[in-house]
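Example (one chain per record):
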Amino acid sequence: MWEVRQLRPVNSASTTCVNGISSCKTDRSLWIHQGCIDRDGFLNLVGSTIEQILSTKVATMIEKRLKTLCGGEITPETLSAHSPEEIKTIGVSMRKAKNLNYLAAHVTNEDLNTLTGKDDKEVYTWLTALPDIDEWTVHMFMIFHLNRLDILPVSDLTFRKSFDPVRPL
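Predicted structure:
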């Protein structure tokens, strides 16, 4: 697998980890079947916006509340029907509520689908022009929506902590 060949030489910790998992098969169709690849780009950005600096448990709870607020389906239309003040009641900060409202009013899946044919730098530039979309959010979008398995989110704290057992402290 090309992923293994790329990651193995990064450093001794990555070599140890990659050698341990290199027998695993990377099957993109399995990722899609298991729901790892998000076909809805808007929902991916909404989820990533909510998940910034939150535990998985808290983010999941807030996403469920947002889905309820939006009548069972989070779309640009159902989300933009709510003011930032209403969105804030689900447990997010006013800043996140405003950013979610902005996303709903200004970004469509059609917009996001145009990113499929763009290179990583163009995707990064387009997405980071949106309020509060940072490097982590762009990485999550490229991995889980654009299905770019060559993205390595090295700035992600959870990703970095996963190397703790094999790297020197």
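Caption: The CA atoms of residues 154 and 160 lie 6 Å apart.
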